[in-house]
Amino acid sequence: MSANLFGERFYGLRTPAWHNMGIVSSREETAKEVFQRFNNYHIEKRVKSIFLNGEHTEIDEFALVRSPVPDDNMERVFGSCTSQYNILQPLDIVEIYDANVKQPVETLGMLGKGEKLFITWTLPEIKVIEDIVKTYGFVAVGYDAKFGATLSLITTRVVCENTWNMAIRESESESAKASGRGKVWTGRHNSSNLARDLGIWLEHVNDRAMGTLTGLQEQFVQMARAPMKDTDELVNLLFKIYPDPKPMPEDYPAKLKDEKMAKIEGEKLSASNDRVNVVELFMGAGTAIDATAWGLFNSVTEYENWGRTTRRSPDNSILLGDRSKQMDLAYAVISNHIANK
């Protein structure tokens, strides 16, 4: 698994990242202090041209070009944009963060060749009985003319490309939105008010975080206080999280029925195996799982993240694919069940 860092441009407060790259500091620092440890670079718009009628002719399109840096001493093209593209330089981003959040950064880094920048900072922890859920503010900025700027509340500590993807996926999930987290603002580089809006939203999100996280903590605590000792109740929830496939439609071509039935039986067996594996984790094979709704939710997440076998690398499925959707569904099913008890 590649971290895809831009050189060694990563900073973490106290806790090293899995890749052991960049800087780990025991001293709290501002975003600008951290940024000044790296070789600064800037992005510029450069008019593009095409070879037309025997000569180079400029067109109404621009290349986004990164300046050379000592450890990558050449210009890099990140993408193409129009004249309306408004560049907020990396230095601009860290200064806007410091002016409005006024909190030390937890992590800060650049990805690829510098086309992505992230900043996270620590928000109050959520206590769920004996468990601790950490929450972070997350600023993500892209310079490829596709990804703009986003601001989210997440539980992922961003340290690399994979955790960036995980955080983006988490910020867009239904479970995050239902619990007051997730993406709260998106900005485009073609907005003349991008710097102003980013600053206002950073201040707003940081100020309201305490109330939001208090509500999230209450939801998780409700899960932890909801006993799950009734077998029928457990089975009913698992059939909603891992349902059997729909039966064979009555009006189905006779020549395709055997093929369709084989597919249905395979999906039915797969769903049954999923339910059995989650029950095993819930009944004692899982890590510190008790007989509550919180325990059931953690049984599903442990199974999806670590227990499910696959021939392919599970990274994409966990972050963006079926596994992530399954965890969102589990959260929705269990939360709705508690609300209606």
Pick out its properties.
341 residues; alpha+beta; 3-stranded antiparallel beta sheet; 10 strands; globular
Write the SSE topology.
Blueprint: E1 5-13, E2 23-25, H1 31-35, E3 43-52, E4 55-66, E5 76-81, H2 90-101, E6 107-111, E7 116-128, E8 131-142, E9 149-154, H3 161-171, H4 174-178, E10 182-187, H5 194-225, H6 231-241, H7 257-285, H8 293-307, H9 315-319, H10 322-339
Parallel strand pairs: 1-2
Antiparallel strand pairs: 1-6, 3-4, 4-5, 6-7, 7-8, 8-9, 9-10
Tell me about this structure.
42% of the residues lie in helices and 24% in strands. With 341 residues, the protein is of the alpha+beta class. The protein has two domains: 5-40 and 86-212, no CATH class; 226-339, no CATH class. The strands form two sheets. The protein has a seven-stranded mixed beta sheet, with helices on both faces. The protein has a three-stranded antiparallel beta sheet with strand order 3-4-5, with no helix packed on it. Strand 6 and strand 7 (116-128) form a beta hairpin. The longest helix has 32 residues, at 194-225.
